[in-house]
What does this fold into?
Amino acid sequence: MNLSNNTILITGGTSGIGLTFAEEFLKSGNTVIICGRRVERLDALEAKHPGLITITCDIADTKQREDLCDHVLKNYPETNILMNNAGIQLVADLTKPVDLEKIREEIETNLVAPIHLGSLFAQHLASKNDSALINISSGLAFVPIAFMPIYCATKAALHSLTLSWRHQLKNSSVKVFEIIPPSTDTELGHQRRADKSQSHGGLPLSEFITEAMEALKNDILEAPIGYAKGLRAKREEMFNVMNH
Ligand SMILES: NC(=O)c1ccc[n+]([C@@H]2O[C@H](COP(=O)([O-])OP(=O)(O)OC[C@H]3O[C@@H](n4cnc5c(N)ncnc54)[C@H](OP(=O)(O)O)[C@@H]3O)[C@@H](O)[C@H]2O)c1
It folds into this structure.
C-alpha cells in the first residue's frame, strides 16, 4: 500500500501501537485522525503534533461509534484508511462466575467495535481508488494465554473476521490487512495492573513499527510481527510454552 497521501482514522491513538502508527503516518505525509477516551491525552497530542486530528470517542458505545463515523465522513470525506486498533486486555477466571459487565466491555471494545466501524466505513472505503481496512489482532489470536481467555478469543475472532472481510471485499479497491503484534511494550492491560507505572513489556515500539510499516508497504495482508510469526506457525506446540 502507498504509505503517503492517505487520510487515516486510527481508533485508540492515545498510546502504544495506535499512537506509534499515528506518528509514523504523520511523518510520511498523511492526514491522521485518532480517537480515544482520554481527553487530556488527545489535547496534549494535538498540541505536540500540529496537523494531528483528534476526536473523543468511546468505541465501546454504539451511538459514539455512529457519531464518529458521521463526523469523519462529513468533515474528512477523503478518508481512505480505517485502522481498527483500540483494544483492552483483562484477566478472567472462568472457573468461577464471571463479571459479565467486564466480559461484555472487552468483547464490545475488541470485537463488536471493529465489526461495526468496519461495516460503517466499508462502502465509503470502496468508493476510493486506493483504500485499506487494517485490523490489529494479536499473536494470541493463534495461541491463547489461558489467564486472559476473553482477550485471546476476541483476537481469534478478529483474525477469522478479517479473512471473511477480505473475501467479501475482494472485488473492491479495499485491501484488508491484519497486523499481528507480538507482546509489545505499551500500556496494554494497565487496567489490571496494581502498579500503573509497570510496563507491559515485550518488543520495543520502535522495532514493532519498522516491521509493521514494511509489511504495509509490501502489501503483506496477514503480517505477524516478530515473535508472533512463531505463534502463528506452530500454534499447538506453542500453547504449552505460553502457558508454562
Ligand atoms: N501491546 C501488546 O503486547 C499487544 C500485542 C498484540 C496486540 N495488541 C493490540 O494492539 C492494540 C493496541 O494496544 P496497545 O498495546 O497499543 O495498548 P495501549 O497502549 O493500552 O493502547 C490502547 C489504545 O486503545 C484505546 N482504547 C481502549 N479502549 C477504548 C475505547 N473503549 N474507546 C476508544 N479507545 C479505546 C486507548 O485509548 P483511551 O484509553 O484513551 O480510550 C489506547 O489509545 C490493541 O488492539 C491490542 O489488543 C497489543
In short: The first helix runs from residue 16 to 27. The pocket of NAP is lined by residues 11-18, 35-38, 41, 57-60, 85-89, 109, 136, 138, 181, 183-184, 186-188, 200, 202 (CB under 6 Å).
